[in-house]
Amino acid sequence: MQRKETEFLTEEEAQAILRVPDRRTPQGKRDFAILLTLLTTGLRKAEICNLKVGDLKTYRNQGVIDVVGKGKKFRRIPLKTETLLSIQDYLKANGNGLNSDHPVFHPLGKHGPYDRKCLTP
Fold first, then answer.
1. In 3-state terms, what secondary structure has residue 65?
2. Whole-prediction pTM
3. Does the pLDDT at position 89 exceed 60?
4. CATH number at residue 26
5. Domain assignment of residue 73, given as a range
6. How many domains in the chain?
7. Residue 111: pLDDT band by 50, 70, 90 thresholds?
8. 3-class SS at 77?
9. b/e for 59-82, b at 16 or more Cβ within 10 A?
10. Residue 107 resides in a domain
11. What gap in Å lies between CA 83 and CA 2, rounded to an integer?
12. Does the residue 3 lie in any domain?
């Protein structure tokens, strides 16, 4: 059986993707934070969509995300400073973060109730 070769983005491709969101708007801040989190943590789409504010923590003086992923496995993922700051910027701009059970990346506009549509335009 032939193994499938793993594909990944180059640094230039990742930077080009990060330039797309208009970070002056709430949706742009949200989209930038989601993209940066995806690119720097390796989280799956479902894991990003299920993140709660309470999952953002500090461990040994570093920002981390606690995630329960596939197979109910717990992972603690370190966050780059830029990633944590982009998430905090979005939460502050959007008025989120008051409740630890509040989703980090909820849909904006008319997307309906919170679910995995958090990454749908």
1. strand
2. 0.82
3. yes
4. 1.10.443.10
5. 11-119
6. 1
7. very low
8. strand
9. eeeebbbebeeeeeeeeebebeee
10. yes
11. 36
12. no
